[in-house]
Amino acid sequence: MILDLFAGPGGWSHALSVLGARDVGLEWDPWACKTRAAAGQLTLRTDVALYPAWPFVGRTRGLIASPPCQAWSMAGKRLGLVDQPLVHQAVADLASGRDTREKLLAACRDERSLLAAEPMRYLHALHAVGDPAWVAMEEVPDVLPLWRQYAAVLRRWGFSVWTGILNAADYGGPQTRRRAILLASRVRTAEPPPPSHAQVAEPDTLFGPGRARWVSMAEALGWGATDRPVPTLCAGGGPGGGPEPFPSGSRKTLSDARARGTWTHRADAVVLQSRREGAGWAARHGTRDNRPADAPAPTFTAEAHRWSWSLRSNNQANATVRSIAEPAGTLFFGHRANECTWVAEPVSPQHVDKPEVVPEPIRITAREAGILQTFPADYPWAGNKGQVFSQIGNAVPPRLAAHVLAPHIGVPFNPDNFTLAA
Description:
The chain is an alpha/beta fold and 422 residues long. The chain has helices spanning 11-18, 30-38, 79-95, 101-107, 118-127, 144-156, 217-221, 254-260, 281-285, 366-372, 385-394, 398-409; strands at 2-5, 24-27, 42-45, 62-65, 134-139, 160-167, 178-185, 197-198, 212-213, 262-265, 270-273, 306-312, 321-323, 341-346, 362-363. The chain folds into two domains: 2-206 and 396-418, Rossmann fold (3-Layer(aba) Sandwich), CATH 3.40.50; 232-364, no CATH class.
């Protein structure tokens, strides 16, 4: 079997299914387990830190691990960095067969920090019988020093190992999500998959095929295409999946805007020619923050003002803002789910001083977020908005995962299997 620790909603599992393989996922979060069940993925709902390793001994061909990143992520308090010496100690102890987790956990500032040492407990048990044949692990970039510690142990055990940072955009993802990766194998040289994309397209040469340009958000979402609908954009509910400010029956989409205004797809941007109906709209309906629940959605009219749309990752001063003609920045969700918004900026300079006509920010939908994370548009997410956004933000991008896993299971990667917008 292929064992997937901290399996989440199925980023690695979906990649494996596309490649014609399956894994057994260990996951604690009930909503991630419901998502996995709806996607047809095998799951044991359990605490990875408490589940014994012996049921997998002698039966495991590959081991995958993406420990929870909240303790290390820039979106959180990053107490994992404070706890890092304790995590290194736990890995060293587990690699030699000593279980000091209880003592070390009591000293951790964030109890999730020590979960990054759990893969070593399983690896030590499996190594006793010569398993697994290969290992793939993923985390936020700050965990790379820990992966290097794992690598040193695995090399002593006879593995070829590679560690480094991979960018999802270099592998066809519409997001510049950088992740620390560990790849190890007993049967082949461990090395990163060759990138398929680059920030600037590269032509074929005598030394090999070129690379396509990075995939933009507009391309991934199907925006600007005339042969398929533009995804729905609505002002989603509050953190934790609260009610939407607008009833679902009165949602407006950028398709509606295209019908009333003009939707244009240029090489450098996707822009909307429209304006909100009148300068008195805010006085009649309130602002985005205080609009009553039964208020109508803002209407776009045929007045020709040109706006370029960008995605703002959160409401902090240093938030990443990317045009939809580019890949998204790293998407942070969880408690920041409803701070990730589409924002409009005037293309023409004469509109800069007319804030009353600027379309107001629109919160990203779970469907759009899933697509930008390279999940299929119809992926069966379970839970309310907050729970779904949390699953998406914590998942490994399936397209990146498929590039990483394909050599280990001996299946070529087929980009046609990862069509995003529908």
